[in-house]
Write a structure and sequence with these properties.
Elements (H helix, E strand, L loop, with lengths): L1 E6 L10 H10 L2 E6 L7 H10 L3 E5 L13 H8 L4 E10 L8 H17 L3 E6 L2 H10 L7 E3 L6 H9 L2 E5 L9 H9 L5 E3 L21 H12 L3 H15 L11
Parallel strand pairs: 1-2, 2-3, 3-4, 4-5, 5-6, 6-7, 7-8
Helix pairs in contact: 3-4, 4-5, 8-9
């Protein structure tokens, strides 16, 4: 049994064949998936998916790359996080790779998400790219450890992973860990404790080997688990069981709830 802890099933790339994607999940033993909110105008589509499919869940948040979009308030995020089937706040964080200039607006947005997560009692889904030092500093300043959560699609060093683990966060690996040249990330995947690890697709992006270059989908999270098992010299079933249990515990979901037949 696998779980895809981060995907974007509301994106237009999936609009034409969602039933087939859900069927593929079942065929590959992927029982649940978490559909991630990236901005407020699109959020109704995210929660609609979660409501329509018992094994899908949702988050609410505004991605750090989104500039021309309404800024959420702490109160607004906390209120939306109370919606049934919303299990986390995010995707939030910092991204200095695509944005330039004065990025204080991005840092302030991140702070509001952390405050909302603490107020709502929901974990955070954090994105960081080319901004690890500031991400960790803001997490410490805003007491993100009180909410907990996950560093999604992790691509940083072991030192960054260890700092996030020290704050009580989980580390999630995507298809990038299957890429041949991702040597440093493979080392991190060997070292992160199994009880603090999640796996994801971030679909439609970052398809794992052997599907690299194609549109990703939740069914292929299995390949991420298989690669981590290979790196650690353990059974794939061990990785599947641990990462699924971590998902249910972190997001406060009953393991047996809404498993499709």
């Amino acid at each position: 049994m696998f779980v895809d802890s981060h995907c974007h099933l509301d994106f237009p790339e999936f609009a034409a064949d969602l039933p087939q994607l859900l069927a593929a999940m079942r065929e590959h033993g992927v029982t649940h998936a978490l559909t991630i909110g990236v901005d407020l105008p699109a959020w109704p589509n995210v929660i609609a998916l979660a409501r329509a499919h018992p094994n899908l869940y949702a988050t609410v948040g505004v991605h750090p790359d989104y500039t021309d979009t309404p800024e959420p308030t702490v109160a607004e995020l906390a209120a939306l996080a109370a919606t049934p089937k919303v299990v986390a706040i995010g995707e939030t964080g910092l991204d200095y790779y695509r944005q330039e200039g004065n990025l204080e607006w991005q840092r302030e947005r991140f702070r509001r998400h952390i405050r909302a997560a603490r107020e709502a009692g929901k974990p955070l889904v954090i994105h960081t790219r080319a901004a690890a030092a500031d991400t960790l500093a803001i997490m410490r300043e805003e007491r993100a450890a009180d909410a907990g959560g996950v560093m999604h699609c992790f691509t940083e060093s072991w030192d960054v992973a260890r700092a996030a683990l020290d704050l009580g966060f989980h580390i999630s690996f995507s298809g990038i860990v299957t890429f041949r040249n991702a040597l440093e990330l493979k080392d991190v995947a060997r070292r992160v404790p199994l009880d603090r690890m999640l796996i994801e697709t971030d679909s439609p992006y970052l398809a794992p080997v052997p599907h690299r270059g194609r549109r990703n989908q939740p069914a292929w999270v299995r390949h991420v688990g298989e690669e981590i098992a290979r790196l650690r010299g353990i059974a794939t079933e061990t990785v599947a069981a641990a990462t699924s249990a971590n998902f249910f515990r972190l997001f406060n979901i009953e393991p047996e709830a809404h498993v499709p037949a």
